Amino acid sequence: MTLVAGVDSSTQSCKVVVVDAATGAVLRSGRAPHPDGTEAHPDAWRAALDRAVADAGGLGDCTAVSVAAQQHGMVCLDGDGGVVRPALLWNDTRSADAALDLIADLGGPGAWAEAVGSVPVASFTVTKLRWLAEHEPQSARRTAAVCLPHDWLTWQLTGRPRRSGDHWEPTPAGSGSGSAPGRVGPPVGGAELSTDRGDASGTGYYSAATGRYRPDLAALALGHLPDLPRVLGPAESPGATPDGLLLGPGTGDNAAAALGLGARPGDVVVSIGTSGTVFAVSATPTADPTGAVAGFADATGRHLPLVCTMNAARVLDAACALLGVDHTRLSDLALSAAPGAGGLVLVPYLAGERTPDRPDATGSVHGLTLATATPAHLARAAVEGLLCGLADGLDALVACGVRVDRVLLVGGGAASEAVRRIAPAVLGRPVVVPSPGEYVAVGAARQAAWSLAGTPDAPVWADPGSLLYEADPTPAVRHRYAEVRDLG
Ligand SMILES: Nc1ncnc2c1ncn2[C@@H]1O[C@H](COP(=O)(O)OP(=O)(O)O)[C@@H](O)[C@H]1O
Ligand SMILES: O=C(CO)[C@@H](O)[C@H](O)COP(=O)(O)O
């Protein structure tokens, strides 16, 4: 049996699956937590990856591995390949003003949508580069290359960079996998960084529609042009690990989830992780000048229009903490209250918000009365509030012309029975819940198997099975949410 491994280095943790390359059956898995916070030193991701691999029983019997990771995180490297400063993550909103400045610099939101398919918000790498240039000019000047979390981890796995004191020492040029025809700048310390279309499209300086970087936009943000990773094809390998495992190209976590689920046009995936995302695989690119829908690429050569909220599973965590209950009890409480929670609405902007673009917003509760001041009403309002944000995202995708035949619900928050049962009511459509699984890591494993096979299309894997949840739509819940959403 040929085994391949997939990695999901996401916001809260690193997960590893070991999979039968022929069928996609998950044979082993492991995980390790990431540190809290909205900035992280990449070494912490590497340490968590090593722990998650050990937890999965090691990769000694695997033939290939690929890494998916949280999108957008700004990893700045100096000329020796050393990390310049901790990475600013997708959920770090300090670059909100930089986003506004960049939008103005290029002539408005429409100009960005046309240039790269997305209007930058604080999550995008390009805005973080502008923040760095303005607030830490010395670090900006030291930045010779910029990459993303999956790019950096993949580069680490090539074994080229060796730690020596405070520096990564690359293996001498010529010992790697070959030339770098697409590179924008010079190699970092002789080692080659690589990425893929999916993750590159979240930078704000790569167009999924044209398949090209916009180096001028990276330079506009940072003040000079950094080295940018070579963009690999969907099954193109960046090389091998020192132990001889073939590496897949890797991608962003949402693109990997789409691949892991085998999503096809007409499928809309709703993921409730640290972020809430609503996305679809599409043959054609989008360019939404309102900024709600980001025009990302997927991991198969197609497109991945996507809406992202910053408040999803952690809204449930916060509700648990507030009520002093665990997730099972929170779910029971939410299901014991009537739809609409008697008029109690929780607007869940606990970490600021990205869609709508309100980086400084805070959460709020509306409609608190003697009757609604109960744990059950609050639990229901928390579940409905986070789902209303995602329902708005689904509407935005539809407004961009995305077809919706099926809605699939995944991510850590999909383990909540209340979320599964209330989602079809709030979204107004039946919801398919695939068998519990780490679909981002499985998608990365599928990339690894694809690179190994060298076939034109990704390997066909068995359907993981699913449950269908149906409910009468509750449009009144969304109307009430819309009434208070923007009150602050
Ligand atoms: N049974 C559950 N009910 C609701 N939320 C859950 C449950 N189990 C885990 N979660 C939440 O899911 C989140 C982790 O989801 P995950 O998709 O792994 O996030 P990420 O990929 O962003 O790190 C955590 O906030 C966790 O508390
Ligand atoms: O910023 C986005 C998408 O644009 C997020 O979806 C990140 O990619 C983080 O994902 P999770 O850790 O929540 O899965």
TrEMBL record:
Catalytic reaction list: D-xylulose + ATP = D-xylulose 5-phosphate + ADP + H(+)
Similarity section: Belongs to the FGGY kinase family.
Domain (Carbohydrate kinase FGGY C-terminal): residue spans on this chain: 269-451
Site feature location: Important for activity: 8
Key words, A-Z: ATP-binding, Carbohydrate metabolism, Kinase, Nucleotide-binding, Transferase, Xylose metabolism
Gene responsible for this protein: xylB
Organism annotation: Longispora fulva
Domain of life, per lineage: Bacteria
Official protein name in the record: Xylulose kinase
Task of the protein: Catalyzes the phosphorylation of D-xylulose to D-xylulose 5-phosphate.
Domain Carbohydrate kinase FGGY N-terminal: 4-159
This enzyme's EC code(s): 2.7.1.17
Active site: residue positions: 253
InterPro entries per the UniProt record, alphabetical: ATPase_NBD, Carb_kinase_FGGY, Carb_kinase_FGGY_CS, FGGY_C, FGGY_Carb_Kinase, FGGY_N, Xylulokinase
Binding site residues for substrate: 71-72
Positions of the UniProt region annotated as Disordered: 158-200
Gene Ontology MF terms in the entry: ATP binding; D-xylulokinase activity
Biased composition (Low complexity): 172-191
One BP term from GO: xylulose catabolic process
